[in-house]
Amino acid sequence: MAIYMGNENWWDDRFSGREKRLGKPEEKLVAWENRLLPGPVLDVACGQGRNAIYLASLGYSVTALDFSRVAITHLRELAKEAGVTIATVQGDCQCRDTFVPLGMFQTIVVNHYRLTQEIVGELLSHLTPDGLLWINGFCRCPETNPNITTRDLLNVEDYMQYKERGYDVLTEQYETDLGEFVCIVIKAQ
Ligand SMILES: C[S@@+](CC[C@H](N)C(=O)[O-])C[C@H]1O[C@@H](n2cnc3c(N)ncnc32)[C@H](O)[C@@H]1O
Q1: Which of 1, 5, 11 to mutate to test the pocket of ligand 1 (most atoms within 8 A of CB)?
Q2: Confidence class for position 5, pLDDT limits 50, 70, 90
Q3: 95 phi/psi in degrees, rounded to 5
Q4: ∠ at Cα 36 (33, 37), nearest 5°?
Q5: DSSP alpha helices (H): ranges in 125-164?
Q6: Residue 10 Cα, ligand 1 centroid: separation in angstroms?
Q7: How many angstroms is it from 114 CA to the middle of ligand 1?
Q8: Which numbered atom of ligand 1 lies nearest the CA of 93?
Q9: For 123, what's the count of Cα atoms within 13 Å in the CB-facing half-sphere?
Q10: CA 22, CA 110: separation in Å to the nearest integer?
């Protein structure tokens, strides 16, 4: 399933055409940060690293993963400019094997990328006890952004199975000027 708009080349072209610039971290992540426990963080589908660099600048040990070579190159340069160190992985987050060598994390952040449920299961197995899988993205197609289609939307129902399996699952729907979003947080058992 093609998720979030395009393949590796599409994203490389998109990042190559973009000014390399450190964007502001996701506001919802900033609001959540005081509930994260210290420990290693994995940022999945990290893009140019606005969230990874934000967390690294607060002292978290961050690994950032994306399949776009250009995004990873920009992230490394921006991290250097920001004076932080981030471990980077160029890899496909739709493939379970990508995560196997990465070890365990206290927090896994997935912002604006829709995972398959197979990968959600894989990521939960990479959380240390009390760790959080923090997922955030659109839950409705915004009228102002034609790049977002229904296949990109997060669906709360997809995550209720984890509640039935005994995980704590917190969901929060909210609206900003950019559209309607949902933040889904799954706590490791
Ligand atoms: C909408 S951007 C979000 C970037 C970042 N998480 C943020 O919030 O700024 C989606 C990112 O997902 C990456 N991506 C898409 N499909 C991927 C895949 N299969 N494996 C790894 N990264 C992927 C793209 O390269 C892009 O950086």
Answers
A1: 11
A2: low
A3: -115, 120
A4: 140
A5: 156-164
A6: 11
A7: 9
A8: 20
A9: 29
A10: 18
Cα 124 to the center of its chain, rounded Å: 14
| Residue 110 alpha carbon to ligand 1 centre in Å | 9
What region does 180 belong to: left with phi over 0, alpha with psi -120 to 50, or beta? Answer: beta
pLDDT in tens, 98-130: 999 999 999 999 999 999 999 999 999 999 999
Cα distances from 89 to residues 58, 71, 73, 101, 111, in angstroms, run 21, 11, 11, 11, 17
CA 22 from centre of chain: 16
- Using a cut of 0.85, tell me whether the model's pTM lies above it: yes
Q: How far apart are CA 122 and CA 124, in angstroms?
A: 5
Using most ligand atoms within 8 A of CB, pick from 18, 67, 119, 152 the residue to mutate for ligand 1.
Answer: 67
Alpha-carbon gap, residue 85 to 171, rounded angstroms: 31
Q: Coil, strand, or helix at residue 156? A: helix
Between the CA of 47 and the centroid of ligand 1 the distance, in Å, is 5
